[in-house]
């Protein structure tokens, strides 16, 4: 059994702001982009369709030599069902001891998925956004919409935020 199990509220406590992830993600993206020299082994995600139920199981293993970290995320994703009490995306992250393969920790992956994805979008936006951009438009209004809103409002300045429900939020 792993010695550490972190439930969603505990992960949220450690990751209370998505921007806390930025330095680690920028380093990880740099290492991945450096190819073999960067020491990241991360095959393309394996995806198993669960056809009768319209869902998928994704398995996302990785080893980073720079961090000496061995991990995999397991994620299921199903069609978004309005008013469902179950989120469309559910994830768990397993962390292993790279020296002997023992399972060290099991982390709820939902908050990690929400904040990691938004933080990576923010890194891309920092590099690619034209200086004259004034309006943030968010498509969808689910988990990712909120996590993207949170980090984009922290890092950038917009005059307006528009979403697909037709709401406009004036920021200035
Ligand atoms: N690249 C990555 O690492 C990740 C990508 N994703 C993807 O991001 C997307 C959003 O994920 P979540 O926010 O977790 O899902 P969610 O189920 O919480 O939210 C989806 C939202 O999209 C809305 N929507 C569905 N069809 C629409 C349409 N035609 N026009 C406008 N809005 C529409 C739904 O009403 C809902 O508000 C999904 O496609 C998901 O697979 C999610 C996690 C990680
Ligand atoms: O990276 C992830 O996590 C996911 N990517 C796309 C589909 C759902 C989950």
UniProtKB/TrEMBL annotation:
What superkingdom heads the lineage? Eukaryota
Share an example GO biological-process annotation for this protein: thyroid hormone metabolic process
Q: Which reaction does it catalyse?
A: (3R)-1,4-thiomorpholine-3-carboxylate + NAD(+) = 3,4-dehydrothiomorpholine-3-carboxylate + NADH + 2 H(+); L-proline + NAD(+) = 1-pyrroline-2-carboxylate + NADH + H(+); Delta(2)-thiazoline-2-carboxylate + NADPH + 2 H(+) = L-thiazolidine-2-carboxylate + NADP(+); L-proline + NADP(+) = 1-pyrroline-2-carboxylate + NADPH + H(+)
- What molecular function does GO assign, one term? transcription corepressor activity
Q: Which residues cross the membrane?
A: none
* InterPro entries (UniProt xref): NAD(P)-bd_dom_sf, ODC_Mu_crystall, ODC_N
Give the UniProt family note.
Answer: Belongs to the ornithine cyclodeaminase/mu-crystallin family.
Put simply, this protein is called Ketimine reductase mu-crystallin
Output the lineage of the source organism: Eukaryota, Metazoa, Chordata, Craniata, Vertebrata
The gene for this chain is CRYM
